[in-house]
């Protein structure tokens, strides 16, 4: 599930914001990053499967201070029928296939 994370950085310094962007880019699942605020003191990270607490801890460790402001899930607008159709479209594989090199 996609989520939007907003983290407040300790200082609006340009050096801190660029370091925060590098840290966020290194996390798996990140799709986009944006600096927010008048002083560029907040970073918004959008992605799927991101651990917000560990990202904040990592930024706090590297930058000195960081605070998790918000964590909002971005929901899908899929209906129940679309989910069922997506499941049905994928063919089921047999539970186990014996390797061909064993029996030939």
Automatic annotation (TrEMBL):
InterPro entries: HIPP47/16 (IPR042885). PANTHER family: HEAVY METAL-ASSOCIATED ISOPRENYLATED PLANT PROTEIN 47. This is Disease resistance protein RGA5.
């Amino acid at each position: 599930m996609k989520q939007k994370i907003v983290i407040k950085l300790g200082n609006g310094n340009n050096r801190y914001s660029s370091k925060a962007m590098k840290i966020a880019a290194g996390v798996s699942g990140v799709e986009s990053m944006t600096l927010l605020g008048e002083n560029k003191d907040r970073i918004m990270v959008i992605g799927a499967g991101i651990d917000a607490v560990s990202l904040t801890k990592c930024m706090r460790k590297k930058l000195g201070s960081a605070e998790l402001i918000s964590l909002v899930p971005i929901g899908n607008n899929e209906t129940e029928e679309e989910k069922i159709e997506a499941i049905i479209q994928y063919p089921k594989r047999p539970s186990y296939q014996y390797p061909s090199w064993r029996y030939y």
